[in-house]
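User: Fold this, then the next.

Assistant: Folding the first:
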Amino acid sequence: MSVASPHFLLVDDHALFRTGLGMMLSQNWPQSRVTQATTLAQARAVLAQEQPDLILLDVHLPDGHSLLDLPGLRELAPACPVLLMSAEVNGQQILQARQAGVTGFLPKVATASEVLEAVRSALGGQVSYAAVPYEVLSQAGGEGDVPAAVMEVAEADLRLNERQLNILRYLGRGTPNKAIARQMGMNESEVRAEVSWLTEWLGATSREQAHAEAVARGLLQP
């Protein structure tokens, strides 16, 4: 594997999220190849033909649950690291992921920089669990019961950071990505990735709906 030109297999059935993440990977690894799949069956078909350098796998897919079906994928790609992704993170998922030897676990509310760091870590052979503090996870040692502190942190509600809230405010005003990037000191690709992330986490299908959902949940003032 070349870290400069990795082959990613991105498995997610949410088109907007998948497109945004695929774009972010391509822009940060210009020589990479991103293969996309929307179901576990499609992922298995890809793995039967080729071996990617990293699998980014949504937990909930139309034809199964990735944590339960992971052994089947492992048989097809035993040496390939896996980053699990989920809009909802709870202690049981963290525990199952650790026991399955998953390389990392990403909540879909993670920022673009956190996602990129997790991908870099996975490509470098390092474990990354963005859902809970590493110092807490390390206390579990990967064996036996996970300490109560891990479960409490993992099951805590995920909150949007101030940057994400500001982006949502701009979405409510109909501000285009280029203008958001200029106002917030970001590049446009980061904004696109954040918008895709936010719409997925909020269960929205458009920028306007993402803002409306954030207001409805009390995350933003009307």
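Now the next one, as you asked:
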Amino acid sequence: MTLINTADKRAAFRKLHEAGCFVLPNPFDAGTAKMLQHLGFNAVASTSAGFAWSIGKADTGTTLDEMLAHLAALSAAVDIPVNADFEGGFADAPEGVAANVTRAVATGVAGLSIEDSTGDKDDPLYARELAVTRIRAARQAIDASGGDVLLTGRCEAFLWGKPDLKLVTDRLAAYAEA
């Protein structure tokens, strides 16, 4: 698959999702992304942990500017769609998430995910309503940019020791509605 521009990459990414399941490997740098494209993958997804480790930082230790530069480099390096692991949007407040998502859309990504984890072991997930509002703010920012970026709301409950399937499905349904 060879795509020329960002709009084509975004349209192709939506078609991949409409067609069913597909493999979405996680390159940690532009060279790895190019290799995966060469191997025939139709899209790639950034890895926040892999990127952080590749620059000598802990997972969730990168700055917003480092992540934006990384996403721009990945998107420019390949002719296939890039999905961004955008952690929690690099902000707690919905307005901050929206501002940062707007900047992420400008990097050329075709998709973007927002997590609902706080990073606090004692209170690992944002309150449900705040988590939903953060996803809604991300969606509104994408729509306002005219970027047609696919948004994924991620519930991180199982990763943070809250193996409650009812909680997860409730949140994911609310994220989908948002």
